[in-house]
Amino acid sequence: MFRVGLGFDNHRLVEGKPLYLGGLEVPSTVGADAHSDGDVLLHALCDALFGAVGQGDIGEHFPDSDPRWRGQSSDLFLQRALEVVRDSGYRLVNLDATIQLQNVRLSPHKGAIVERVRQIIEPFWTLGRDAVSVKAKTKERCDSVGRGEAIEALVAVLLVRETAEEPAEGSR
Ligand code: MG
Question: Is the pTM of this model over 0.90?
Answer without folding.
Answer: yes
